[in-house]
């Protein structure tokens, strides 16, 4: 045990600095913004619709794609809240808790590509020229017909940024977590080999060899 203990300490040290702190960092960098975007995306979409309606027909709304994207955004909120409720409800029931996790995991796996990629691509394509001659970045030195149109343009730009930031951050978060998992497994494997080597070493004390198999040999 005396020879195994340093390796166990080394293993705990690696797991602490390779898994826990990077995980916290990645969660702060990607996870929390993702949670905020889950709520900001539908908020800016609603504000965009209100802003376009305020122009009294000067800016046209493609209701089909707007409703589709708004429904998609609200669906993510519904999934998030539902998971939290069921997580708390079955927190002390291991089997049901695992079923809930698996259920929501399958929903995200099968709906993720559609929600995160297909809808934003379709939305961007169908609303690409909805501002007419107004530049995409909504420069304030442009000659707008009214301040209402300028505000609607700014809200539209913020809406697009949020819409694309969400799948981008989700992808980066998943990639980072996957790489972190591989790194952690590599360190774990290395420490397991180190522990095994400690067990397999022969110990020599005062001319007597104590083998790893329990044999005692006199030199």
Can you describe what's shown?
By secondary structure, this protein is mainly α. It has one domain. It contains 4 helices and 3 strands; from the N terminus they run ααααβββ. The chain has helices at residues 5-54, 63-89, 94-126, 147-200, and strands at 203-205, 208-210, 216-218. A 3-stranded antiparallel beta sheet has the order 1-2-3, with no helix packed on it. The chain is elongated, with a radius of gyration of 28 Å. The chain crosses the membrane at residues 20-47, 67-86, 107-126, 164-184. Keywords: Membrane, Transmembrane, Transmembrane helix.
Provide a short characterization of the protein structure.
This protein has helices at residues 5-54, 63-89, 94-126, 147-200; strands spanning 203-205, 208-210, 216-218. It has 219 residues and is mostly helical.
Structural topology:
Elements: H1 5-54, H2 63-89, H3 94-126, H4 147-200, E1 203-205, E2 208-210, E3 216-218
Antiparallel strand pairs: 1-2, 2-3
Keywords: Membrane, Transmembrane, Transmembrane helix
Transmembrane segments: 20-47, 67-86, 107-126, 164-184
- Most strands sheet: 3 strands, antiparallel
How many distinct helices? Answer: 4
Q: What integer value in Å does the Rg equal?
A: 28 Å
Which sequence of SSEs, written as H and E, runs from N to C?
Answer: HHHHEEE
Estimate nothing, just give the exact number of structural domains: 1
Number of strands: 3
**Helix and strand composition category:** mainly alpha
Poorly predicted residue ranges? 1-18, 191-199, 201-210, 212-219
Question: What is the percent of helical residues?
Answer: over 70%
Q: Kindly, what is the distance between the CA atoms of the first and last residues, rounded to a whole number of angstroms?
A: 24 Å
> In order across it, which strands form the biggest sheet?
1-2-3
**What proportion of the residues form beta strands (DSSP E)?**
under 5%
Broad shape: elongated
- Average pLDDT works out at 77
Keywords: Membrane, Transmembrane, Transmembrane helix
